[in-house]
């Protein structure tokens, strides 16, 4: 009997030349968190992003957010505003710094941080003598947040923005690359992301001094002395030269990966839009999403679960949308400014298989299961 293979939500997709770069690292014995692949990968990302970006590649996107908070001087007792509808890694580093997250709900055009709620929160915190130290905004699922509005608020109240672009490498906003729209940007190269180094991340800034400081902090904060001298606390967060080799291979196919993911989205939309119980997130004018994951919003929790379980039955992985941080047990005591938008998305939303390595047969198989679901 023919057994069907499992279809994953988003699995690694190698381009072909990754092993050449990894082999070079071995052949030249650059098996360390520095070397030509680290330099090369950083230059290639800088070239791709443009906009005067300076890039430091690190061990993960989470590490990049942690370093970004340190660069902005976030420390014990501070408050940091953070998009609630996101993966927990956006918020966890706030706690690493001994600071407190204040969660902000999303708006319905992009599913990202609401400028209105953000400003309400800032006014409230300033009134209570707790002016926030930073804003963490997220281009969730690859869709850019409303950067003009968020940057205007950032300037008005002089609060810097950390741009969590972990899911949005290859996305852009009015032709400016996501990751370069704010004070400090963050990328992730985790195994499920649009390109991967198995694990890894990057910090992006237009300020070379900040990049230098990020590299300093992520390589144990060693002062410039012949012996080991330390005047600040450092971290071991630099990317390995071996993994940067995988990244260099992946950079060669990034645009193809974006095209393939957008193709998945268009396929699902073309074939599922006829069902009134399913809707898709459109790109507002000037917004370009890499469509990292194709997400649908269904008409009810029951239908969402019916779809998810029908796919699971056929060994097809799908997943409810991110559970908002203000609903997470670990953050239950944190302040939040919410209006129900992300709670509804969590209740009724589903991410469909979205890998760039899905073939037409896979997509047809998924569509067939969804289309057979009663009460669509
Ligand atoms: C993946 C992800 C991160 C963390 O990146 P890692 O490289 O896995 O540490 C942060 N924020 C968002 C929104 C993510 O999806």
Automatic annotation (TrEMBL):
Keyword Metal-binding annotated: no
Domain of life of the native organism: Bacteria
SUPFAM superfamilies linked to this entry: PLP-dependent transferases
InterPro entries tied to this protein: DegT/StrS_aminotransferase, PyrdxlP-dep_Trfase, PyrdxlP-dep_Trfase_major, PyrdxlP-dep_Trfase_small
Pfam families on file: DegT_DnrJ_EryC1
Annotated keywords: Aminotransferase, Pyridoxal phosphate, Transferase
Keyword Isomerase: no
Family, per entry: Belongs to the DegT/DnrJ/EryC1 family.
Name of this chain's protein: Aminotransferase class I/II-fold pyridoxal phosphate-dependent enzyme
Protein source organism: Mariniflexile soesokkakense
């Amino acid at each position: 009997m023919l057994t069907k293979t499992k279809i994953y939500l988003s699995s690694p997709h190698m381009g072909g030349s990754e092993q050449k770069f990894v082999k070079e690292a071995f052949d030249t014995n650059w098996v360390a968190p520095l070397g030509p692949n680290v330099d090369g990968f950083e230059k290639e990302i800088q070239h791709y992003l443009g906009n005067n970006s300076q890039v430091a590649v690190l061990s993960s996107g989470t590490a990049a957010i942690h370093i970004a908070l340190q660069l902005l001087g976030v420390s014990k007792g501070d408050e940091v505003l953070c998009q609630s509808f996101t993966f927990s890694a956006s918020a966890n580093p706030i706690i690493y710094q001994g600071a407190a997250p204040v969660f902000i709900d999303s708006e319905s055009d992009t599913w990202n941080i609401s400028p209105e709620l953000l400003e309400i929160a800032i006014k409230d915190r300033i009134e209570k003598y707790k002016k926030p130290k930073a804003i963490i905004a997220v281009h969730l699922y690859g869709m850019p947040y409303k950067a003009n509005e968020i940057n205007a608020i950032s300037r008005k109240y002089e609060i810097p923005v950390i741009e969590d672009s972990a899911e949005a490498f290859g996305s852009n906003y009015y032709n400016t690359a996501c990751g370069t729209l704010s004070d400090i940007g963050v990328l992730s190269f985790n195994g499920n992301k649009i390109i991967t180094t198995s694990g890894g991340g990057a910090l992006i800034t237009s300020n070379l001094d900040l990049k230098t400081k990020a590299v300093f902090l992520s390589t144990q904060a060693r002062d410039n002395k012949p012996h080991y001298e330390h005047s600040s606390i450092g971290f071991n967060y630099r990317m390995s030269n071996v993994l940067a080799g995988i990244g260099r291979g992946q950079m060669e196919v990034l645009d193809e990966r974006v095209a393939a993911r957008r193709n998945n989205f268009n396929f699902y939309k073309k074939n599922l839009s006829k069902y009134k119980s399913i809707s898709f997130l459109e790109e507002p004018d000037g917004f370009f999403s890499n469509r990292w994951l194709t997400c649908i919003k269904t008409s009810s929790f029951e239908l969402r679960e019916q779809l998810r379980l029908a796919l699971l039955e056929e060994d097809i992985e799908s997943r409810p949308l991110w559970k908002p941080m203000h609903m997470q047990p670990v953050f239950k005591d944190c302040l939040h400014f919410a209006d129900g938008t992300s709670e509804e998305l969590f209740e009724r939303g589903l991410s469909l298989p979205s890998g760039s390595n899905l073939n037409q047969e896979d997509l047809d198989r998924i569509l067939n299961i969804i289309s057979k679901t009663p009460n669509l």
